[in-house]
Amino acid sequence: MFSSSSNDRRSLPFTFVLAAVRRLTCDSDEQVPIERERADVYRLLLVLQGTPEVKFEGQGRMAEPGTCLLISPGSEAVITGNGRACAACLMSFTAIHAGADDKALQSILERLSQGTRLPASVLNEFAGLWEKGDARQDGLIQLRWNRDFLSLLLLLLEQSALEKQSRDPESSVGQTIDYLQNHYHRVITVQQLADMAQLPRWQYLRIFKKLTGTKPSSYLIHLRIEQAKIRLSGTDEQVWEVAHRVGFSDEHYFNRRFKLLTGVSPGQYARIYNPKHSAPREQEAVHPSPAALSRIVYDDGGTLGDLLALDISPVGANLRFCDNDPLLGKVQLTREIGFPLSPDKVRELNPDLVLLSRYGSDKYPELSAIAPTIVVNEYAPMYRRLQKLGEVLGIRERADRWLNAYDLRRERMWQKLQARKADDETATVLFYDGNLKLYLLHRQRGLAKLLYHPLGFRMDERIQRLRPVRGHYYISITPERLDQYAVGDRLFVFVRPDLRVSAVLSELACCSSWVRLPAVRSGKVHCLEAFWNLDDALTSQLALEHFPALWT
């Protein structure tokens, strides 16, 4: 007969029970949310195909096929395709433990949370096992599924132990260098790279410099410039297209970096090395002699500061945005031409040259009979507009000096402000028009071109993929959709000139979806006068000078 003894009793301190299995797929630009579960449910995410970005607990990381990630109870997550179709398997499970001492269970969960990788073929094989039958209708199938799930967990824990014993830090950093070479066009932070190598940031940076001789940001810029040279010499893409394809969101910053590293501008490089650019060029429009230009009429009020920043005061202009002291002091001798402009008022000024906006281009026939008239694109990026003015007015060197000085000051400002922000901190720009009407401003215009400098804030990936209605530079946001668009660690909110900031904040505080936003809860909302979002060069220069004080 068998006898029992309390001294020989062996009890299992814990086990895991598989609750549900779900297959997730997302297209190249799609985002798939993983909703928050109840407080005792863990999720294990298996990446089967593609290289998605998985963001949870405030951190984002790139996940290669075969990656396994533990999502803790109460956490939400978002999977983004990042340009490729992706597939994953999401398993929900609970942990059952006996007694008050759960140290062994917590040790297992901690090891799982560190993440590990198995061959993608192995994960696909496991995922295939859970697609057979219906565990809800058959208890035997449910037991088999749980058995296979425990086998997978055991395999992951064994692999994690092996990785911990054999991991070579230099090899791990080398793998991230390979990743950079293949994904240079993406938004990549040092912290993401350190996480991929499973190393502390300080150790990752030290090893990276040992292997490459430079820091990750400089290495990435060199990679992007080399890829840009290939595109400029072998395709018919425009410079701005090349900049965006290799990972630069700011075309002027790309131009400056390219010239620093190669000695020539991207356009000059294309003309030298691309056979398609060696063909005779069409004859360019003939502009009036710069020496004869002393009486200029400028039609666009929103970009009048471009001319003023170059120390040129027009005899006539659209003055509807000149209600601030910095602008008023420079247009005291400038006559108002109206909005829309009045050809009769222009004729009275006897101009040498009329610079006409696209908005007013229907007046071209009448104005060109008064004086030489050139249409300028007020919607072009600021640096292109200044280059155009420099070309038309014969002051190209002055315009280039201004742009280079602005870019250098912008870079130095952000270098000084690094301690005030996290490396991967995101920001979103909104405009408040009263009565809970909010608009998302997500183009590189106005203050955004300062905020989203490579050393500044990052634009959330979800915002980067948005496209407004053609012809608009904003997206209207209803209160119900605030959590989809007002994302980011910080919010910069421009308010209509006739509204008081305190009144705006009081109105928004009455909106439940507003007060739930992470940036609002953490006190990182900055309300600014709409003046600071004008895109002209003079206002951009003033914003650069005042930004450290505005951002408080």
Automatic annotation (TrEMBL):
Every copy of the Fe/B12 periplasmic-binding domain together lies at 295-552
Molecular function (GO) terms listed? DNA-binding transcription factor activity; sequence-specific DNA binding
Q: Does the UniProt entry include the keyword DNA-binding?
A: yes
Question: Which keywords does UniProt give here?
Answer: DNA-binding, Transcription, Transcription regulation
Domain HTH araC/xylS-type, chain residue ranges per copy: 174-272
By its UniProt entry, which PANTHER family does this protein fall under?
Answer: HTH-TYPE TRANSCRIPTIONAL ACTIVATOR RHAS, HTH-TYPE TRANSCRIPTIONAL ACTIVATOR RHAS-RELATED
Protein's name according to its UniProt entry: Fe3+-hydroxamate ABC transporter substrate-binding protein
Upper lineage: Bacteria, Bacillati, Bacillota, Bacilli, Bacillales
